[in-house]
Amino acid sequence: MSEIKIALLGLGTVGTGVYSSLLKRKPEIEQLLGKRIRLSGILIKNPAKPRSDFQKAPLYSEFEKILGKEAPNVVIEAIGGIEPARTYITRSLEAGCHVISANKDLIARHGEELIRLAKEKGVRFVYEASVGGGIPVLRTLRELLRINKVQHVEGILNGTSNFILSHMRTTGCTFPEALELAQQKGYAEPDPTNDIEGLDAFYKAMVLSKWIYGVQPLWEEAEVKGIGNVRLEEIQLAEQLGLRLKHLVLLDDSLELKVKPVLVDSEHPLYGVEGVDNAVRIQTDLLGCLTLQGPGAGAEATASAIVEDFLSLYETGSVYQDKPAVSEVVQRKQAKEGTTYLLIGEKEHISGETISVLQLQGAVLDTVSLPDASVIALLYAGDLPVSPLPFTSIYPVRLSSASEAAEEVLL
Amino acid sequence: MSEIKIALLGLGTVGTGVYSSLLKRKPEIEQLLGKRIRLSGILIKNPAKPRSDFQKAPLYSEFEKILGKEAPNVVIEAIGGIEPARTYITRSLEAGCHVISANKDLIARHGEELIRLAKEKGVRFVYEASVGGGIPVLRTLRELLRINKVQHVEGILNGTSNFILSHMRTTGCTFPEALELAQQKGYAEPDPTNDIEGLDAFYKAMVLSKWIYGVQPLWEEAEVKGIGNVRLEEIQLAEQLGLRLKHLVLLDDSLELKVKPVLVDSEHPLYGVEGVDNAVRIQTDLLGCLTLQGPGAGAEATASAIVEDFLSLYETGSVYQDKPAVSEVVQRKQAKEGTTYLLIGEKEHISGETISVLQLQGAVLDTVSLPDASVIALLYAGDLPVSPLPFTSIYPVRLSSASEAAEEVLL
Ligand SMILES: NC(=O)c1ccc[n+]([C@@H]2O[C@H](COP(=O)([O-])OP(=O)(O)OC[C@H]3O[C@@H](n4cnc5c(N)ncnc54)[C@H](OP(=O)(O)O)[C@@H]3O)[C@@H](O)[C@H]2O)c1
Ligand SMILES: NC(=O)c1ccc[n+]([C@@H]2O[C@H](COP(=O)([O-])OP(=O)(O)OC[C@H]3O[C@@H](n4cnc5c(N)ncnc54)[C@H](OP(=O)(O)O)[C@@H]3O)[C@@H](O)[C@H]2O)c1
After folding, report:
1. CB distance from A286 to chain B under 8 Å?
2. Does A171 touch chain B if contact means CB atoms closer than 8 Å?
3. Which tens digit of pLDDT belongs to each residue from A223-267?
4. What is d(CA A330, CA B304) in angstroms, rounded to the nearest whole number?
């Protein structure tokens, strides 16, 4: 029985998860593949860090040893960031190794060059874990939706943001309190900027766009907004209307990309996605609307995506590698239909005049306020007036009644 | 360029959808496969039925002509029912054709013999469309979750039942009114028994069980209950508690199967699955909980599953055919943990004594009633007393708080 040698770069949250999954499921993996598997080396940064239980593979702190000691067949990158991950992946591909990565920052920025290099070298570069953690979203898109054209994708792709918004709503705590808890629970990084500012979700959207349409939107044209400014009262006002605030990625086949907080109603497939879960709602021409929901992070879930990617290297060969499905970029007039918004502001600033201006352009459907707060929210359907409005927050609302779902355009 | 000949059996809802999808997407399909495709014949029952627009393939009313005129490479069965579908599929497999089917009744009952025959003949028998319509649930389980062990599956697999329950809740109409609308909209069959009595969902669960675990539960041991007895007040009482009634399939790795109405809370991934949508929540050991949601029926969505199955025949060869993933049946002591129930009855029959009996075994968490109705509902946590209770309905409740989700056992 031949042997597959695997090198693991990084032994943090994800690396440790991969290590234990490969070890724990070794017999089943070997049975599925009809080959033995062995960890030929693990790369870490700090050799002085105390680690227990990593007896089954040599630990190295120099990358040279990873490729040099015993040429691996597969390299799994779980370091994160641009450098040295980019160099290590490049060198691994050049050495003829398949590479598996969970690194959305890197793939968003340099995926194209790495994919090209892999193709040149006749090896595969796969990265299911980089988008949506354990959810098999990339492989579903490429392997199970071959003839379906993806019209748009709507996703909750940052577990930390989703946890914070869920937690504020269910417990009534403030943004800083929810963020602190997210950090305590290990969901948010010590520096949570990428999560909170929407950058992590943006990188994942860029990976998705390249994966589905073969190209990315222009980085500077995407609208990217995080949840840093969301106030508890806004969430509570929305809840009175049966709406929940979600941090969404909205990408469509005209390559329009928005990453921002959006309100969704209780019929919307992303309404019930709570806590650290991620979800992707994929709208296609044939199937209609398919939603995948699951854990967007965590050692075991992410390891699941990586180990499944590993199996796919040996089970399907490269059948899907060079054959993206049929989705293509559509040129579309940017005609926006009237949509619905929740407008939130201080009661004292929202005059009858403001409401009259709004009624000229559309309809104020409902007004809600909180008993002890000075804020008021207006549910409004129509185009927003171009003149400045005295509201502190304006959130788009996605109503998912059947008719709207069919006509939907990006907000 | 070589050619793939496709025969289509049946030209009803699904058959027509397949016909138009194959025609509409012919260029893309041919490009993906690198082969031409052609419809060699379509089987119908009633040659006198007026049909327009089926110019691209000969219509036959005798099956002999389908295999005899021009040997097809692939036969798509969209007739439904046991006979003559079983005979036609058998004869197609014997003739060396790959077969694609959407027929859950048949596959639940005779899938094993057809799978065996396909294997003997070196062809494939695939049936994604038989479970969950357009949702790629079977292929996700077998192709994307290879090393994940499926611990349990929870699904909304009958679109008609889900539509009826959703519609009663949102409009306040009665069961017969909702059923009539479902029939008008073409969701329910003229004879809706299989949908309403839970049999359609039961067949799909049987297909799923065989697919995941390689075996089916004993048919007579499964608990199968439909939605025929659900009253509007019950749905309204549940809603007061933030719960929604869903007709669920619950299958686990000890081969315990229940098909019945269950209440779920707003954090539960199936809570937001409304209308004719289907959804499957798959709990695995590594990934955790993955939920797929999408259209469970309809011409285009079902055609999507069939055409994707068709592509898979030629793109992955038979790699997954003989290699089910690692999920296995677990022997488990049937120790049930205390769960939560909604007990509904006539106010006048629920005495203080009844409540005392309940409190001995668990806790009455909440009591709700409707202003103008004589019914009352008790939310109860604990084992149900064995002595008969004066309630007209008892619904299990699935609360999806993180801790419960981890410990969950079948209700
Ligand atoms: N955490 C998740 O749930 C999750 C989910 C999906 C994707 N991801 C992605 O997975 C990747 C890893 O994330 P993580 O959470 O596992 O990170 P982490 O816990 O910070 O672990 C990083 C690992 O990489 C090693 N490392 C860092 N710099 C290195 C260098 N210059 N040379 C060699 N080794 C180096 C570290 O070594 P030491 O142990 O010596 O410090 C550590 O073992 C990232 O791309 C992340 O975006 C993470
Ligand atoms: N409808 C859905 O959304 C859906 C979704 C998933 C799976 N399915 C499954 O797909 C299958 C087909 O469903 P459907 O809704 O398309 O059914 P349908 O609309 O009733 O169509 C059945 C077709 O089969 C033909 N047929 C019936 N008996 C026949 C016989 N003895 N010989 C030859 N042809 C015969 C009929 O011919 P005539 O046209 O001459 O009457 C008709 O064209 C069923 O197994 C169903 O469970 C349906």
Report:
1. yes
2. no
3. 999 999 999 999 999 998 889 999 999 999 999 999 999 999 888
4. 21
